[in-house]
Specification:
Length: about 325
């Protein structure tokens, strides 16, 4: 038997009946010969890891714009933390860890520079831009010079549904919950490091149940999911843990994500995105060849969104300086 076939046979024996088995992976947009070593979902995971969009996540904002300290999260470190949490849950529930990992690693590929602030600007300018939809667009139409990564439908569905929809697989649902577990708790740590929060300000109603350290809270949330989802066709918390999670999440939106502490810098970042969008809509031929081609196929505004959303924070700032800041006379 081929190594892939051995893995698929082992999945039939070891995985839960509610798991999405690799042998049941849906058809890709372009038919391919199966890999002799890797399952379909392992192949998808590897394609995501090796693509340009994944590497650029290391210089994209998570919450704090262009942080100087090496210890603040970036979109890449967030993605890795989501993957770690999601894989832990999937393994404990005997679900497909490879599918879970592929979804987790690809879920934020479509995020803009400057985090959700950049996303909101593009959404206003384009008449509709969501990072989870852009993540799917990247793996279907932008990566590999416009040919896409040709991923399985289960991975693409999990990526699409990680924010506010219900995925078709339990593995996709795990990633959706793991995303929230990761960002709430690591953003608390970053906010305390950045002086935006003090640990004693966290809502006691939540921390008394979940724990007072990041590790304790993450462990409590993971345990709740595992204890309430084992051998069941659903992924869920117990009611008390879910309530504590929601209290903590609401607190973070009020006191960190929508806080006025970083508003001046966020406003500047939004202007960078706005000016770049206007410039390239007037000068689409100055974009790289891939995006010029996309403009011909999908329209200028859509292609400009594609181009800008793929930029890192630093690249967007440097490009803004190049286009709009006068250079000294030599």
């Amino acid at each position: 038997m081929l190594p892939r076939e051995v893995t698929e046979k082992n999945e039939d024996i070891m995985l839960s009946p509610y798991a999405c088995k690799s042998a049941d992976a849906g058809k890709r947009l372009r038919e391919e010969e199966p890999c002799p070593i890797r399952t379909a979902f392992q192949r998808d995971r590897d394609r995501i890891i090796h693509c340009n969009s994944f590497r650029r996540l290391k210089h994209k904002t998570q919450v704090f714009l262009i942080p100087k300290s090496d210890h603040y999260r970036t979109r890449l470190t967030h993605t890795l933390e989501v993957s770690q949490i999601a894989r832990t849950i999937a393994r404990a529930l005997r679900l497909n860890e490879d599918l879970t990992e592929a979804i987790a690693l690809g879920h934020d590929l479509g995020h803009t520079p400057f985090g959700h602030d950049g996303e909101r600007v593009l959404n206003d300018l384009c008449g509709g831009f969501k990072h989870y939809e852009q993540s799917v667009r990247i793996v279907e139409k932008i990566e590999k010079d416009g040919n896409g990564l040709n991923l399985t439908p289960q991975v693409k569905n999990g990526i699409l549904c990680h924010t506010n929809m219900t995925a078709e697989t339990l593995e996709g649902v795990i990633v959706k919950l793991s995303d929230k577990i990761a960002y709430i708790n690591h953003d608390i740590e970053d906010a305390i490091r950045g002086g935006v929060l003090k640990e004693e300000e966290l809502p006691r109603e939540a921390t008394d149940l979940l724990g007072h350290s990041k590790s304790e809270r993450i462990t409590s949330l993971i345990n709740s999911i595992i204890n309430n989802s084992s051998d069941k066709p659903e992924i869920k918390y117990d009611p008390e843990t879910e309530k504590a999670h929601d209290i903590l999440r609401s607190f973070m939106f009020t006191n960190v994500y929508f806080s006025s502490a970083a508003t001046p810098e966020k406003d500047k970042a939004c202007k960078v995105v706005e000016y770049l969008f206007g410039y390239y809509c007037k000068n689409p031929d100055e974009m790289p060849p891939l995006y010029v081609r996309l403009a011909e196929e999908w329209g200028t505004e859509r292609a400009v969104c594609d181009y800008i959303s793929g930029m890192t924070d630093d690249y967007a700032v440097d490009l803004f300086k190049e286009l709009f800041i006068p250079k000294p006379w030599i």
